[in-house]
DNA sequence: TAGATTGTTAATCGATTAACAATC
DNA sequence: TAGATTGTTAATCGATTAACAATC
């Protein structure tokens, strides 16, 4: 059992949400314990990998029983969602941006949407859930005023780089990029690409080579 | 230069879309050549990695000049999008499903949307772009009738497993899962998770540990 | 107790990086 | 020509898996 603030290897970080979603299922089914073998089989890993991964968390398994699902969910959420809320803004109020703004899961995981922005006068001012779409000119003020850390780019590919530049200028620390373009940003800003088209391409490749993937 | 049908390591497959999107930028800027070093710097890799990656493709670089951007885009698209179209269905006609259905990029990369489905009578029958939302009862017929290979799950988490089951039953070969749940499917079916919440969590972690990522 | 399961160390595997001869 | 850049081999690094003593 290590300190929760040690730096986890990236492959581990990317597996944590999978553990979390599976463990929630187990809890829903009222299972109080799960073994490394059980997790491994459900997620397509080896039990060794599971034990290695979980050894990074503040959690102790119990011989013969495994890990307590309640505690496991707790530490996974703590590791993934952190202790304080993450503030974010969404840029782009098309279907994709609206889907995000209306998506209750984010708030449930301590991601707080502080604004949604667009440059189209036809949508500026319209209501999306509890938010009203704001013009891009107000982006900087909101980011700095509310201490927003994260920007989600939900605009068409051709506009994404410009949006990224404005987010960087506003002082954002990380970007989730949903557009199918490569963004250039200063090194201090972290970017995670999350693009359905890229996922489709990965999947098509996996199918072509007859080979399950996740 | 190897045959394009050799099996690429997964880390390579996941980098290919990034090369592709960057190379398109270069072409737009009318740059005819790019070196491994140029690509590496733009994408945050080493030039060694770039040369290793590209050596898997049917493409030869030229000493002193690098790779021809036109040809590079061509082989990347061939590798990623394949030669024939991939047929897909979207399940869930909420904002997210509609965003996908209306998203021109898919068709441009040879992903052909053959249907959009929902079980809500309020949306069944409504028009989304060129498609009309169909009831779930017609899923199987469409999948089998049109030879659909891929299903995209764009429904709330609590409904995702059931949708996955129906897609599997219909004979789908791969699933892109946008819901924040872990799906259980038979081994022959490939699943790629593409979840914005997981990307946010990965990003939050990267920010926390002061560390750029992609 | 006997058997199952953890936590951890050591072994293996695979991916990334370095290095350099070949080449334009 | 001299210098830059590829393609590839070898070295390094890191992640996954195997193995097993400790433990409940």
Model description:
The structure is a homodimer of 214-residue chains. With 214 residues, the first copy, chain A, is α/β, with parallel strands linked by helices. Chain A has helices spanning 10-28, 36-43, 47-54, 69-81, 95-101, 104-108, 139-146, 157-170, 196-208; strands spanning 33-34, 67-68, 86-91, 111-118, 127-128, 131-132, 134-135, 150-153, 174-177, 190-193. Chain A has a six-stranded parallel sheet with strand order 7-4-3-8-9-10, with helices on both faces. A two-stranded antiparallel sheet of chain A has the order 1-2. In chain A, a hairpin with a 2-residue loop joins strand 5 and strand 6 (131-132). In chain A, helix 2 packs across helix 3 (47-54). The first copy, chain A, is elongated, with a radius of gyration of 20 Å. The two termini of chain A are 28 Å apart. The interface between A and B is large, with 72 and 72 residues. Chain A binds a DNA duplex (24 and 24 nucleotides) through helix 3.
């Amino acid at each position: 059992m290590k300190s929760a603030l040690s730096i986890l290897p990236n492959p581990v970080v990317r597996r944590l949400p999978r553990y979390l979603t599976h463990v929630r299922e187990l809890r829903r089914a009222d299972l109080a314990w799960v073994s490394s073998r059980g997790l491994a089989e459900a997620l397509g890993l080896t039990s060794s990998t599971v034990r290695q991964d979980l050894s990074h968390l503040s959690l102790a398994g119990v011989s013969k029983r495994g890990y307590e699902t309640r505690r496991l969910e707790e530490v996974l959420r703590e590791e993934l969602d952190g202790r304080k809320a993450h503030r974010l803004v969404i840029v782009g109020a098309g279907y994709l941006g609206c889907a995000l703004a209306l998506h209750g899961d984010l708030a449930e995981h301590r991601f707080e949407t502080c604004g949604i922005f667009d440059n189209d006068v036809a949508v500026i001012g319209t209501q999306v859930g509890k938010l009203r779409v704001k013009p891009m000119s107000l982006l900087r003020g909101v980011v700095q005023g509310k201490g927003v850390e994260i920007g989600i780019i939900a605009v068409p590919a051709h506009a994404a780089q410009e949006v990224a530049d404005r987010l960087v200028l506003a002082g954002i620390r990380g970007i989730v990029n949903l557009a199918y373009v490569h963004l250039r940003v200063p090194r201090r800003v972290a970017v995670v690409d999350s693009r359905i088209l890229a996922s489709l391409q990965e999947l098509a490749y996996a199918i072509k080579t007859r080979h399950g993937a996740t």
